Amino acid sequence: MPVIEHQQFINAPIEVCFDLARNVDIHTQTTSNTKERAVVGGTEGLLEEGDTVTWEAIHFGIKQRLTAKVTLMEKPNKFVDVMVKGAFHSFVHTHQFIEEADGTIMIDKFQYKSPFGPIGVIADKLFLEKYMRVFIVSRAKALKNIAENMN
């Protein structure tokens, strides 16, 4: 099971970073390159524990839907969402926030299992793991940019 972990320092308070990361509207803004949008469930505002949202996006030239549920919320330090339905066999995405004197460290930990057994493992090695890493890093940098330019 591949694990992608990325740390991003953000020069903004922990509460700001936490709320931006769970804001559906900001998620749509930071994933515009895949035309991601919430279509069912929590389609706007801040996600809370127990919320389910279905995202529609274009990945690899194919329109896809993925439903995730927020299973843990420890404000303002951590929240976890898990895939309920979608292209992966499974995934768990942990969003952690650590307060620093001059800002916040945001840590994304994305653990996933590809579909299709051995073929999925080959896809991971060939392109999927790199694609997911670029997606997560790009979103983190976009969140950093938004948080640091709010005032």
UniProtKB/TrEMBL annotation:
Ranges of residues in domain Coenzyme Q-binding protein COQ10 START: 10-124
Superkingdom: Bacteria
InterPro entries per the UniProt record, alphabetical: COQ10_START (IPR005031), START-like_dom_sf (IPR023393)
Protein name: Ligand-binding SRPBCC domain-containing protein
